[in-house]
Specification:
By secondary structure, this protein is mainly alpha-helical. It has 2 domains: 1-30; 32-81, no CATH class. The chain contains 4 helices and 2 strands; from the N terminus they run ββαααα. Helix 2 (54-61) packs antiparallel against helix 3. The chain is elongated and about 45 Å long. Bound molecules: zinc ion (2 copies).
Length: 95
């Protein structure tokens, strides 16, 4: 079975990696390779670290109850009012 590379932006598939990267160059589609998924994905996908709610979703994936997940989500929304703010703060921090 051939491995297919799927673009997370437009969801089209490419048969090999060369064609896939060519597609990304031509269309400007972006993929993210953070640890949230074991494959390349769209930045901001539910489990992506670019998504501020990813810790809550990860907790739910690892078996946390609904109220625990809601609690984590609440903590996140208090700590990081918006993804933009979070990003700026992260960039200002040298560590
Ligand atoms: Zn695409
Ligand atoms: Zn990601």
């Amino acid at each position: 079975m051939a491995f297919l590379f799927r673009c997370p932006e437009c969801r089209t598939r490419r048969r090999d990696y060369g064609l896939f990267t060519q597609h990304l160059r031509e269309t400007g589609h972006k993929v993210c390779i953070c640890g949230g998924y074991h494959y390349k994905h769209r930045p901001g996908s539910p489990f992506c670290v670019a998504n501020p709610m990813s810790p809550a979703l990860l907790a739910s994936r690892y078996g946390a109850s609904g109220s625990e997940v809601a609690e984590i989500a609440l903590e996140i929304s208090i700590a990081a009012p918006s993804p933009a703010t979070k990003k700026r703060r992260a960039m200002a921090c040298p560590f």
